[in-house]
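Input record (one chain):
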Amino acid sequence: MSEKQKKSFLEIESKKSKLEDLEYCTSDNQIATVQKANDTGNEIILNIQSIAEGSCKVYVRSASGEESNRVFINVVDQERVEQEKKEKEEAEKQAQREAEAQANKYSGSQRNTNNTHGEKVYRTPHGKRYHFDSDCGGKNSY
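The corresponding structure, as predicted from the sequence alone:
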């Protein structure tokens, strides 16, 4: 899965807890995990590691049990999405090729069965010659 960065803010006000006592949480550790990446004094930067596709919420909990707002994250496997898109496009192209081939098959067979001269064609008993005149092939022409 590709890495994306997005800035979101989690706010927690606690007079009882220190920054070093904060716990960084997700609502589902099977979707994503969260760890402290950097501390600039006023701001803590978190690293969210995606594990599997799905949705969860990220939040901070103080030692006294207070929780920050929850930020919703949705983990999507872009490689899978792109592969499914390619497969769908290829299936659509294949269906279109098959439809065109089927249309050509029917239009071709209709074209071949049409007598463009508007005349009957007679065949000799052995089928070696075709004639437009029934007398040309002899009595046995049909």
